Amino acid sequence: MPTPTKGARLGGSPAHEKLILSNLATSLFEHGAITTTAAKAKRLQPLAESMITKAKRGDLNSRRQVMKRIKDKSVVHVLFTEIGERYADRPGGYTRITKLGPRKGDNAPMVKIELVEALAESPKAKKAAKKAPAKKAAAKKADAEPEVEDVQDEKVQDVVAGKYEGSAAPNADGSAPAGFVIKGNENSMKYHTAESPWYDQTEAEVWFKEEADAEAAGFTKAGETEDDK
User: Fold this and answer.
1) Beta strand 220-221 with 109-115: parallel, antiparallel or unpaired?
2) What is the pLDDT of residues 84-101, one digit of tens each?
3) Cβ atoms 109, 119 nearer than 8 A
4) Which end of the chain has fewer CB atoms within 10 angstroms, the N or the C?
């Protein structure tokens, strides 16, 4: 006849006690930590660590033994594929019990039982950790180094803005900056509005928002002199 477990039995019968511990183990593996009474946590701890040891083995027989106690297949899958691999290099001590104080009402001592962090990372985690710094460095380098085209645009804009007040240089593709509609030609010192017959044929070397800005910069409107006819 098997020797009874020392201490008070959980539940009203051995079957009930077995069901209680199975449910507690399921919740522990599903959530990583649970709050329960000190008596239940002390009985749960050896059962949970035994299951983690079986998960580390990973063979079919170990999986069948665990499934006799844990009926949720998704929890068993997490136990064998994630938790077991997480503690692959740890010899034991997979859980931790922390005292929380007495429970209101019956003054039962409450504790928190949780899975501890692995001392050594699994092989997959080590590979991921090596790749992470390289990815972060590449992303930081990309953020620190602006595109060459943007730098060139900024330099050209600065030169033009310093030369003519209220003006802007063409974009890299030759298009007008936002809000600038008047084309200026530095060779002839003429500016063209949208009504000008030469507007579409003129390649702008400098852009202005308004005619007043172009005239203030020394440009004259195309078509107002005999040379433009």
Assistant:
1) unpaired
2) 998 988 888 999 999 999
3) no
4) N
- Backbone torsions φ then ψ of 216, nearest 5 degrees: -65, -30
CA distance 163 to 207: 12
- For 101, the enclosing helix (H) or strand (E) is strand 95-102
Q: Where in the chain is the domain with CATH 3.90.1030.10?
A: 14-115
- Residues 6+ positions from 205 with CB-CB distance below 8 Å: 170, 184, 185, 186, 187
Residue matched to tokens 């504790």: 111
Among 13-17, 59-63, 115-119, where is mean pLDDT lowest? 115-119
pLDDT digits (tens, 9 = 90+) for 99-155: 999 999 889 999 999 999 754 444 455 555 566 666 666 666 666 655 544 444 444
- DSSP code of residue 209: S
Nearest Cα residue to 69 out of 104, 17, 133: 17
Rounded Cα distance between 227 and 146, Å, is 45
Q: What would the two tokens of residue 109 be?
A: 């001592």
